[in-house]
User: Fold these one by one.
Assistant:
Number 1:
Amino acid sequence: MSGDKIIASTFSRNETLGLVFRLTLFGALTFYGVRWFKKTLDPTRKQQVEAQKRAERILGRIGVINVRLSEFELSVAAHIVGPSAIIISWEEVAGLEDIILDIRETVILPIHKRELFSGSM
């Protein structure tokens, strides 16, 4: 044991701070580099950006702002049709009078006259 030497490595304060700085810089560069590389290689990135813009525009029209949506929610929101975009009235739907009446009674009426249906929940 007397011949064994214990090598103790001591770092000065400046060396330690330099090492921490370099490791932090390396980690940050690696993170942003991988993130950029992933975005560059994603073949659907362009469609996702377009869907997000379209969804934000549609959601802005119906009054929903400052909402963070997942990728799936963005794809659904991009296909929302606002009420102002619907230019067809009930009179223009031909041959479906029974279905129109059912929709009015089960969907439209409870929305417009909530007080009539308050006990049914």
Number 2:
Amino acid sequence: MALLTSRGERISYAAGDTGFNLVWQSIELYLFFYYVEVLRLPLPVASSIFLIGAVVDWLADPTIGIVADRLSSRLPMRAWVLIGGPAVGLALALAFTDPGLHDPGLTLYVITGHVVLRLCYSLGNIPYAALTTRMSDIRAEHVVLTGLRMQGAALGGIIAALVYALVPTGGDDGARRFLTGAIVLGLLAQPCFLVTALGVRERLRPPLDTVGASPLAQLREFGVLFRQSPALRRLTVTIIASGLSITMVTKGILFLFKQIGHADLGYRAAIVPAVMLLVSVPGWTRLGGRLGRVPTLRVAIVLQLAALALAWACAGSLPLVIVTLSLAILAGCGMSLMFWALVPEIIAELEQRRHAGCAARVFALATTARKLGQALAPPAMAASLMLASDHSILPGLVAGACCAAAAGFLYCPVERAAGSALADHDPPAGRAKD
């Protein structure tokens, strides 16, 4: 298969997600735990902060997508990575800084730090995600780029988990561990962003943006995108539900191992999602090429639900919990790879139909959907911790996997057959119309 991008360029692209995941793994795996166990925020307050962050994402991500699309002829997408990189590194350190305050000052500080961290992350990450469609217009290459990007993210996750595991606690309930880890990771991310900015070539010129410049016209454009593409609507629902389940599994690692009496093992187990992503992407990519992306997505969803149900049934056995949790994490890797691999062809279909650029907008919508699923995870976990008879996290994890299964089977994404248009034809036989 002939590809437009060189190996060095693809590695440069993946380096960007290594940098972003050094930051995001800190949010995904550790920040909720830090709020609850170190800062001692009540569970409802800590989970609500993540919902506030999601609201910020819903506003910021589309806005950044709009601006990036409109300025793409003058400011390349990769330049945004250099703009957002230093800012997100500083914001990460501030988010893990204990100000020594009491409520309401502590809660206000945490909310402010969380919002700033989200804004800085989106500033670089939304244009970075859209780079895929500017590097190549070959569908198979989009899958390759997505897979390498996820392996780069996995490498970042491994580094993040190792840093937090190796930093001494300092005898202060982990506060020093988290702050030191955040500072180190924020610094390590900067060379990764530089490699992407210098090593990626945006060889495809985006179509002229014909949307009016007024904010109202720009906001209406998102509604137009949803109306024009049933595939986008379906994929958005799948990303939200799958993102909820995947996030609950990763955020639940520290809580689960603490509940079964192996809290220290939880910090070591936190490296498993990143390692699993790094080693499993080639296998999931091959399976997706053989079965198709949507069938492979369904395989991963079923595997995750079955693994979590078994973990709940065998919660008293540490070896079985480790095995089933690893299988659930493996399934989450396949779910993520498949739904992200569907986004570029939706962009290609929409830009071909509309004769206008929308890559950053669509990736902003997809990223916002992913973050919505992530934001819903802490409240769902808090509900499980508070309402379950044994205050276990596992009932919540199973419920999240059921949500992903409902979306993946009852309102499944649409995968385009070769040579067809995504939204111009009815779904294949046996697949319900939108």
